[in-house]
Each structure stands twice: as C-alpha cells, then as structure tokens.
Amino acid sequence: MADLWPIWAYLWTSALLGLSQAVDVTFSHLGDGYFVKSPLLKKNNHDRQVQQELFVVPTAGKVATLRASYGPLIAEGSTPHFYANKTNASAQQPAGLLFPGMDVSVHIIRKEIPHNSATVLVLSHASHGSQRNKYKTRNRQKWCLSVYVQKDLSEVSSSCEIKEDDPLCLLKLSLPTAWWNNSTVTANVYHSLHTVDINSPCVSATNSILPSKTKEEDVLHIQKHFLSSVILVPNKPSAQSLDVRYRRVQGDLLVIDIPTEGFPAGATFEVPVLLQAESYLRAFSIHTKARKGLRILDAKSSNPSIWRVQLSLNHKHKSGMVTAFVKDAEHYTKKSSVQEVLRFTVKVDDDFEDEQTGRLAFGIEYKNPIKAKKKHRQKRNNWSARVVARIPLYPDTEQTVIPVTHNTELINTAILTGKQQMFPLNVFGVSKGGTVKDIRATCTCVSNMPDALKVSSSCLDVYLDGTESTGSDQVTITLSCGTFSQELNFRVWVPDFPLEVVLSDNKLSQIKAWKVPPGRKKR
C-alpha cells in the first residue's frame, strides 16, 4: 500500500565503536521518503552501537533505499516489505501488500458470514508502482494473489492471477458447513502475493488440512500475512427469509410446501416435504430437477431419529435423487398429524440481470406402502406422482460500495512546491452474489474537511493543491451512489511552519564559470 508508515530504522554500527560523531542517515534518492522531526519528539540517548531515525515512505509500489555514511564508510539497506503490509481489512478501509513495482489493496466485502450464505468475498485491486518498467516488454510480469481462510486445522484457499491489463480480482471462498455451530465463532483470513513463472504457477488448494510447512511454501518462500477475522454467524432470520409463504401441494401420502414469493439472486430457501396424517408410508424416493437459475444444495432429515435421508446430486447440482426411509420400520406407527420428513435447500444463481422464473420438478416414487388404497396400487406395489413448482427470481439489487485508493495517508508537499498532488479513486459495487461493477459514474463525493483534503465531485480523485491550511488525523470522504453510501478515511500530514531548512554546506562560495549575462541589472 502506498500509505504513510512510520518505521524505526535500526542501523547497526558496531564497526564504529568508540566514535562519538553521529552517523549521517539519508535516502539514496530524493523523494523516496521523509525523516520526521518534531518538537514533541525528544532526543533519546541511544546506545552507541545503534542509531534510530523515524521516517515515512509515501510512494506507491516503491521500496526506499537508505544510506548510512561515516566519513569514507557507506552502508545501504532497503525498507522491508512487511512494513508496508496493512492488516485488518474491511469494505471501507483496505489491507495491502507492497512489492517492488506492485501495490495491491485487499478488501473483505462482509465480515459477518451467515450459515445459509457460507461464502467469503475478497476484492483486490492492483496498481503498478513507480518502479514499473517504462518500456513495454513481451514477457509482462504476472502476480498471484492467494487468500486463505483458516479455522482450527482446516483451511480453504483461492487464488487469482493479477495481470498488467486486468488489475481487478474477486475471490469467492466457500466455507464448509461444518465450521458453524449454535454459537458465534470466528475464522482468520490471510493473504499472500508472489510472482508467477513456470516453477511457481498460480494454483489454489481448498479444504485441506494445514501441515506444519508445505513443500510449495518452503520452495517459494510464500509468506502469509494476516488480513482480518470473519465472524461465522448461525442461521438467523434475514430479509429474504422472513414470513415465507407456502402453497401446500397435497398428495395422498406426501405434501410439498412450495414458496409462493420471489427470491433475489444469491438467496437460499428451503422446500419442506411432509407426510400426511394417518399414513403408513415408510419409504419413498424423490427425483429432483432444478432449472432456470436454481440449484439444489442439500436435503436433510427433519427428524433424524425416525427418518434417514440419502442424497445424490450431479456435479452441477441441477438434478439428483433423495431416498427417505424409516430407520425402525418394524416398530414404526402412523402419526395422527402431518409430520415433516425432510427439507430441500435450494440456491438461486448469483449472476443474472433480468427477472425470470425458476423451475423445480419433483418426481415422487412411493415404495411398498402398507394399507394403501387399491386404486393407487401399481406393479410391484409402487406408484408415483409429479409436482412442478415455479419460483419468481429477480436480480440482486443489494450491493456493497467499495471505494478503492492506494493512498490513505498523505504528505502535503503542495504547500511547499505549489504543485498539485492527485490520488486516483475507484468505486466498485459488489452484489451479495459476487457481481462486481464499476459504479463511479453514479456516485458523488464530498470531503468533510476541504481545508485539509479535497475531492472531485465526480469521485475521480482526491487531491491537494497547496491551498490547504491544516492537516488532520481523520478526513472523511463520503461517497453517495444512488441509495447506497460509503465513507473513506484519510490521514493528511502537513509541514510545521515556520519551516526549518538545513543545508549540508552552510558556506557560501563563488560558483566557477557562472557570470551574470551583460545587460542585466544587478541586484
């Protein structure tokens, strides 16, 4: 990230023991960073072997080089990458990874993950830093961003390849349902970034048990950085599942409750299957098919102590078969009221734009019912029924506004130079189903402290033009995108006036071969 990171630079000068003169510490290149001097920082009596300097690195995607000199002795060192890696990401404030020539911001879309929507969404945006090669080459560098979600000894991971012409990436990590229980628990999210080549491709391994050290990590020296924690929330009523109305389809032996209301993209709903009162049915099968935007996720017994349910699905989760039977058929007795046997869990697809009608088909086959009506008897004592349900579906209009910038801590040098500083701003909308759109054209932005930091009304960038009169620990930029809004916080540093100027050579000397052209007035 191209933020402002205060770093304590420990320059070990053990070779200079006994020397009382201070070591001169500078940046190798002007503009790489700034040393912080403040009257609030008192001079510390450092160990004679160690000299400490507090400095900041404001440039995106650039690793600064420091130089320590003492007379003819010179030593250089680069700022470590891990100082630039911010953690505890959210939709509003990103975490980041800084590598030479590459600056990646990472956003967790939602930190509360409900059981019925067990997916972690992570959005990343890459920006090439100042060390990017100015000359285009045929073999452009590619990067691999990996995100890991860990709970106990289980891990789910996903990766995406970051290319020069495609800086945006959305990772979807589906978590195992076994991670949830009746109480609220947390899982940790990590991320890593490495270059892609023939020996280190961009691959993803999911649902694996964490070893002490994997061979791939050992060879590639992949370092995982903590990103944030997510909360695994047990199922609770939500806006999409409150007061679901059903149309009860009656049969001689089974009843199926079909939802009559519509569902948004990415929603999950259930279809209960019940046994009629006074029924002797002990076993049945249901052939299921889901079409036009629906998928079958699961089918579970509503009363596991009495009914056992087995489910088999194809790889697309579009069709399958459920078999239900009584565990202890000999001692089973009919019930005087309707009893729920099982529930189907159905998922609405994430990516569609227009309203449509989903279709569910249930082909029911009864097996060897006792005391069944003669008119329903068929060969082998089996008979069947068919139920077709049509479910209204509509696009997911709920979205999270994600403002993306690679500079959230700024040093105002425009006050000194008069040269305007501009920092690009991108705005994306991420739907609940994981669809990403650039929505900056629909947004307006405003700063709560324009005397410290300004923003263009079209959210094109934030900028400093030298007319600012103050800095601030927190400047809030408010983004309004239709009915959705979001805030982005900045920290702005300004020079402390009167400005103290220190020259390395305080002796004024004549410059050789520099003469005032004739005809010009002397001052």
Task: Give your account of this protein's structure.
InterPro entries: Ig_TMEM132_2nd, Ig_TMEM132_4th, TMEM132, TMEM132_3rd. Residues 105-188 form the Transmembrane protein TMEM132 second Ig-like domain. This protein has 4 domains: 7-82, no CATH class; 85-130 and 140-233, Sandwich (Immunoglobulin-like), CATH 2.60.40.1940; 246-394, Immunoglobulin-like, CATH 2.60.40; 399-493, Immunoglobulin-like. The chain is 2% helix and 47% strand. It has 2 helices and 37 strands. The strands form 9 sheets. The chain has a 6-stranded mixed β-sheet with strand order 9-16-14-11-12-15, with no helix packed on it. 28% of the residues are buried. The model is unreliable at 1-20, 39-46, 130-138, 205-220, 237-243 and 370-381 (pLDDT under 50).
**Morphology:** elongated
Our estimate of the beta-strand percent is over 45%
Tell me, what is the CATH class of the largest domain?
Mainly Beta
What is the distance, rounded to the nearest whole angstrom, between the alpha carbons of the first and last residues?
Answer: 48 Å
Overall pLDDT level: 76
**Spatial order of the strands in the main sheet?**
9-16-14-11-12-15
Structure described in brief:
Residues 254-371 form the Transmembrane protein TMEM132 cohesin-like domain. By secondary structure, the chain is an all-beta fold. It has 2 helices and 37 strands.
For this entry, give a set of tags.
6-stranded mixed beta sheet, mainly beta, disordered N terminus, elongated, 2% helix, Immunoglobulin-like, 4 domains
